[in-house]
Design goal:
By secondary structure, the protein is mainly alpha-helical. The protein is built from 6 helices and no strands.
């Protein structure tokens, strides 16, 4: 059985941030176990509710692929700004296409851009959900 399935209420209470009363949170050990079981190095970890930030702290410690400053920068702006950013990317991509056919390496060449856009989308969704659900 996974060790994180055996957590006791006292362990959760002991790691509760000072001044908080909410018991619904992950301990760092729990977050680390789940992340280790469900991801490989370099994967993005999305915690849409972010709560006390435990999952983010553990994910960064395990694989600091984005700094907090990068996360803030990437989640800044409005949905209209993000749509315009996507439009600029699309114009850039389609400006590279010659004729009516895509080159064989088209998908591979755009992989980095797609990965970046998906990562930003996850951060932005999390930020919007946090704002809505507070």
């Amino acid at each position: 059985m996974k060790p994180y399935l055996l957590l006791r209420a006292a362990e959760l209470t002991a790691q509760r941030p000072s001044g908080e009363v909410d018991d619904v949170h992950f301990t760092e050990a729990l977050a680390e176990s789940v992340i280790a079981d469900a991801t490989v190095e370099g994967d993005l970890v999305l915690d849409p509710f972010a709560g006390y930030g435990t999952t983010l702290a553990v994910a960064e410690r395990i694989d600091a692929s984005l700094t907090p400053a990068q996360k803030l920068r990437d989640s800044a702006g409005t949905p209209a700004d993000w749509a315009n950013e996507s439009l600029d990317d699309a114009r850039s991509i389609y400006g590279q296409i010659n004729g009516a056919y895509l080159a064989r390496d088209y998908a591979q060449r755009q992989r980095g851009l797609v990965t970046d856009r998906l990562a930003k989308a996850g951060l932005r969704l999390a930020a919007l959900l946090n704002k809505i659900l507070k």
